[in-house]
Design goal:
The protein contains five helices and six strands; from the N terminus they run E-E-E-E-H-H-H-H-E-E-H. It has 195 residues and is of the alpha+beta class.
Length: 195
């Protein structure tokens, strides 16, 4: 007997949910398969994949042990759907998988430092008013990295930023956004630094 959804429940005119149970080779027990069916539309591209050749529809399939209704499982997985990309950024852009120290707690401290840096980069993007999310490697290349020469202007040391990298003019709006970024702080902390 082939696994199939025997009954579809419409969520709205375009989406329907169904489910079935199946034990695949090597599994010790059957698992729950939740299926989301989306009707293809001309005005909006479908995000599902053509798993089966069913004209007019795309499908999403989730294998789960949760007992929630199918639409809740779909919403839950959608909230976590981009997590794999964040993990890849931690591994490839910030080398979170490329170290091992002799002591466990030292390795944990190093990993937590990388997570803190990742969160600070995300907060920097919000504070700088960047319109779209940028990966850490993109931030490094487009925002933080800039050719420069250390020189003198009279008796003062100055840093000459390369204009081919955007120079200071391209970075002034970012710095202004960061300096005027207002966040709520704990009531125990003074919101403005003492001068």
């Amino acid at each position: 007997m082939k696994p199939r959804v025997t009954a579809w429940r419409a969520l709205d005119p375009h989406y329907a949910v169904g489910e079935f149970s199946l034990q695949l080779f090597g599994w010790d027990r059957p698992r729950r398969f939740v299926v989301i069916r989306e009707q293809l539309r001309a005005e909006r591209p479908s995000l599902g994949r053509k798993l089966l050749e069913v004209p007019g529809y795309t499908f999403r399939v989730f294998v789960t042990n949760l007992v929630l209704p199918p639409e809740e499982i779909w919403r839950d997985y959608n909230r976590r759907s981009d997590m794999e990309n964040r993990i890849a950024e931690l591994k490839h852009d910030l080398a979170a998988d490329d170290f091992r120290l002799q002591e466990f707690f030292a390795t944990e401290a190093a990993f937590r430092s990388i997570l803190l840096l990742f969160n600070l980069l995300g907060e920097f993007q919000r504070a700088a008013g960047l319109a779209t999310y940028r990966q850490p490697a993109t931030l490094r290349a487009q925002v933080f990295l800039c050719g420069a020469l250390l020189g003198r202007a009279g008796h003062r040391l100055v840093l000459h930023l390369s204009s081919s990298w955007g120079g200071l003019q391209r970075r002034i709006p970012l710095l202004e956004h960061v300096l005027t970024y207002g966040t709520s702080t704990s009531t125990k902390l003074h919101p403005l630094p003492a001068t």
